[in-house]
Amino acid sequence: MVASALGALRGLRGLRAWGAQPLSPCLRRCLAKYTVADALRHRDNTDTAILRGWVKSLRIQKKYTFLDINDGSSNEKLQVFLPTEKTPDNLSWGSSIEVTGHLSTTPRGQIELIADHITVVGDCKVTDGYPFNSKQNHPPEYLRQYLHMRTRTKYISSIFRIRDAATRAVYQYFNSLDYINIHTPILTSNDCEGAGEMFRVEPENAKTLLKMYTEGVPAEQAYFNTKAFLTVSGQLHLEAAAHGLSRVYTFGPTFRAENSKSRMHLSEFYMIEAETAFVSDLKDVIVVIEDLVKFVTNSVLSSCEGDVLSLRGENNAIDWLDKPFIKITYDEAVDLILKNKHKFKIPLEIGQALRKEHELLLVELMNGTPTFVINWPKEIKPFYMRSLREDDTKVAALDLLAPITGEIAGGSLRENNYENLKKKLPSPDLNWYLELRKFGSTPTGGFGLGFERYLQLICNVTNIKDTIPFPRWPHNCSM
Ligand code: 4AD
Ligand code: MG
Which ligand is nearest to the CA of 289? Predict the structure, then answer.
């Protein structure tokens, strides 16, 4: 499959109606008449506008009171004003309000709401422990202490609007290429990556386990008759589904019990994984990843331009969008990194995995263009990867490296030769996986893209914990 073929396919599918349904009267009543985003798109209108949101700034003057409100629908605030005599006493910064009035355009072209009435829905006790201050832009580390309230801030709400837009674009992308979405299981008895980084799952209720006890089964495994874990990757199940559905993907939570508090690791993160049957060239995996990343990024830029701009700043455009991503082999990458030995602290030896600083250095040497490193040493990659025909010490694998995060995606061709796979199979629990190679087997290839790391890249966010609404990491699972 080449890039142009992908484009043609997407064009055809794009012809399908993608229209929004009209809102039923009941739903219209249920939602406010306007969101702030609607209002800002709106011009003068004699209709009464009802808006709901939170007060972002408040200036009470003698004659008039001015306030800015936002309801999370837009990066911008809507200015509201009303005669001070009509201002409720308990109106303060941070309170939630309902405003009734008329939209109007100022001589400077700014849309504002001339309010007739304001109701305070929930007042905000700013002097009684409210953690945010109207005059301050709090740093992300500070906001992280208030996970339950941080969506009220401009910084975090921009990231989550982008997260939402990117999520929709991912589904749209795969749908446009006829990939079928598979809900791979969260609970599994397999360790896909073979790294032992799983969380064990068992019932909390000891009585349940006791009731379910089966002779010969360890007591703590009584529920499933086997050890069960939270999934580290949906790949193996996707491979099973690809043997029958050809093109499949999944986009869901993934869990890793790594003891890493780095700014790139979470214990729970979302992964976009795709698997394609009848693929025996790593280039066919690479083309989909590159196209996906560019498609989603373009979608985000068109629907969340203001958010991206406010997060990245005016002088920090995403300049890799129009460039082909770089492709180099592991050997070439190591060579390049070693030539720049003086620029990193942790030593690197040929055959070893790249450390974060090596990855970031490599991307820097590529002027920030995302870079695929392909053909990795077999020893440092999982059992399921296929060896290169021309060099048995290497596997047909890729890591996609990008600025800010280093690795954002990993993928490979899968070992589909029954005998070869049998030799490498880490556990008899995976006999079902081996069996795929016995009955109508096909070569497949696929990848996993870390969604939060991707968001770090496009939102210019240093710490991954700010890209997921409720981050979990070692020693932290509050809420
Ligand atoms: O490289 P990984 O471990 O690859 C797999 O899991 C394959 N089974 C995927 C596949 O081929 N279907 O993980 C894929 C990506 C990484 O490149 C990284 O972006 C992200 O998942 N990732 C994490 N993101 C946040 N926190 C962690 N602890 C992560 N571990 C991996
Ligand atoms: Mg990896």
Answer: 1
